[in-house]
Amino acid sequence: MSSLLVDLLRQSGGTAVIDGGLATELERHGADLNDPLWSAKCLFSSPHLIRQVHLDYLENGADIIITASYQATIQGFKDKGYTDEESEAMLRRSVEIAREARELYYKGCSECCSGDGAEGKILKQRPILIAASVGSYGAYLADGSEYSGDYGDAITKTNLKDFHRRRVQILADSGADLLAFETVPNKLEAEAYAELLEEEDIKIPAWFAFNSKDGVNVVSGDSLLECGSIAESCNKVVAVGINCTPPRFIHDLIVLLKKVFNRTGIAVNFSLTHKRFNSSSVTTKPIVIYPNSGETYDAELKQWVQNTGVTDEHFISYVTKWRELGASLVGGCCRTTPATIRKIYNVLSSSESAIVGKE
């Protein structure tokens, strides 16, 4: 596992906090994301909004911020009329903006002597990691197929590797700490990612986060056990889990992922308590969990269906159990907010305090 990730988990008491939804927050700040590039549109239209959202999440307890590159692809930018050079520059810019937000955060910490700053902001020196987002091929298509995993018979593993190759190279060399392969909808794309990481000898670690709509399989219908095994067998992958999936499915999905890990027979667990390793369960890689709010997305209307999700309080009620099951990285995806992340931070901090108090 990455030494940076080990350090982060040690200092966070065993469970680190990932940020929440980016696009929703950009819209709340006034961005118009009705575009095939979605949140990546802001890389050229309003990068200051991306920086502010990253900072909002850091000030509400996030230890890991994910770049605005989920739907940023060279092909997508070229469709908008940008050159190869301009497209590659915007991919690099997504990481630069996150790094700028981290520096702004550290500056705020240095100007504040306590853990709680002005207006209740969480300002404390700690490791903060930047994960460069790599969205699926379906995200580029902007037709909702990252929620079905159905790319048609014409798309092969070779096609997918060729599609992602240059993008992954650029993001890996742009100063990020991790690559986050997000909303992976099928086994084929997981295989393409794993092979690509090896073929290109990518130097920074990665995580794979799959999505599910039934709590058993990934959205394509492929077995989560098989998909998780691909991630588990790749040495470049340091964490594996679930994102953009309703919270109610996460419990069973964590249990399934632990079955994947148990097949190795290696008794190692990266879930820490009180800043030291704990061998209470069997796993070989940290489990990363960042569900959406449970709301339904209408791909044709390109909007979220009203009143189909859960409240923050309902979302947060799951967090302690996810941690107990073995989740080491917990955050939110679509339609979660800085307020959601603050509540996750509070729950995990309270859990750590309770552990310390018992010792």
Automatic annotation (TrEMBL):
<feature type="binding site">
    <location>
        <position position="244"/>
    </location>
    <ligand>
        <name>Zn(2+)</name>
    </ligand>
</feature>
<feature type="domain" description="Hcy-binding">
    <location>
        <begin position="4"/>
        <end position="348"/>
    </location>
</feature>
<keyword id="KW-0808">Transferase</keyword>
<keyword id="KW-0489">Methyltransferase</keyword>
<dbReference type="GO" id="GO:0008270">
    <property type="term" value="F:zinc ion binding"/>
</dbReference>
<protein>
    <recommendedName>
        <fullName>Hcy-binding domain-containing protein</fullName>
    </recommendedName>
</protein>
<feature type="binding site">
    <location>
        <position position="334"/>
    </location>
    <ligand>
        <name>Zn(2+)</name>
    </ligand>
</feature>
<dbReference type="GO" id="GO:0008898">
    <property type="term" value="F:S-adenosylmethionine-homocysteine S-methyltransferase activity"/>
</dbReference>
<feature type="binding site">
    <location>
        <position position="333"/>
    </location>
    <ligand>
        <name>Zn(2+)</name>
    </ligand>
</feature>
<dbReference type="GO" id="GO:0033528">
    <property type="term" value="P:S-methylmethionine cycle"/>
</dbReference>
<dbReference type="GO" id="GO:0032259">
    <property type="term" value="P:methylation"/>
</dbReference>
<keyword id="KW-0479">Metal-binding</keyword>
<dbReference type="InterPro" id="IPR017226">
    <property type="entry name" value="BHMT-like"/>
</dbReference>
<dbReference type="Pfam" id="PF02574">
    <property type="entry name" value="S-methyl_trans"/>
</dbReference>
<dbReference type="InterPro" id="IPR036589">
    <property type="entry name" value="HCY_dom_sf"/>
</dbReference>
<dbReference type="InterPro" id="IPR003726">
    <property type="entry name" value="HCY_dom"/>
</dbReference>
<dbReference type="GO" id="GO:0009086">
    <property type="term" value="P:methionine biosynthetic process"/>
</dbReference>
<keyword id="KW-0862">Zinc</keyword>
<dbReference type="InterPro" id="IPR051486">
    <property type="entry name" value="Hcy_S-methyltransferase"/>
</dbReference>
